[in-house]
Amino acid sequence: MSEISIKGKTFYDKTARLAQSCWGTSPEQTQFAALLFNLGVVKDETSQPKTSQLHLWLLSYEFSETVLVLTKDKIAVLTSKRKKVLLEEMEVPPGYEGPALSVTLRDPNADNQASNFNAFLADAFGRGRPSGPIGIFSGEQVQGAFS
Questions:
Q1: Using CA of residue 10, residue 12, residue 13, residue 17, what is the dihedral sign?
Q2: Where residue 45 sits, what CATH number does that domain have?
Q3: DSSP secondary structure, 102-132, as one string
Q4: pLDDT digits over 25-46, tens only?
């Protein structure tokens, strides 16, 4: 298997561009407090084409069974141990002022995935709730036990 490498500058530049296009300099620029993208098990005939494309655009890879939440100030990721290491190895470009990356490890052995999501959502939004609706790609069907 070839070694996976994610280009930090590309990831952070695209994350900042996405946040800027959603929230700009004013929180009122969008109707959403956050955007949530859940990529379940990746199969050849994907039922999540938009989320898959977003992963490919941001990371150059599809990170199966991974959840991304983008807010104006943070990109929070819930993922496996190996993917967490890959994300944390990315170098933040000098002068970067976009959303900060925060990665929560998903426990694959958890009987109840609620504990994974509770820890992730606490990281993504802090102690409070989002200040508005959370945007998703409608019509996509997430596959797998993680979903």
A1: positive
A2: 3.40.350.10
A3: EEEE--TT-SSTHHHHHHHHHHHHTTS--SS
A4: 665 667 788 999 988 777 766 5
- Under a CB-based contact definition with an 8 Å cutoff, are residues 53 and 39 in contact? no
- Residue 3 inside a domain? The answer is no
Structure tokens at 86: 């890959």
Q: How many residues does the chain have?
A: 147
Q: Is residue 2 part of a domain?
A: no
pLDDT tens-digit series, residues 88-147: 999 999 999 999 999 999 887 766 678 888 888 889 988 777 888 888 888 777 776 656
Question: Strands, E, within 1-147: which ranges?
Answer: 34-39, 66-70, 74-79, 100-105, 134-135
Q: What pTM value is reported for the model?
A: 0.86
The count of domains in the chain is 1
Asked if 115 contacts 123 with a C-beta cutoff of 8 angstroms, the reply is no
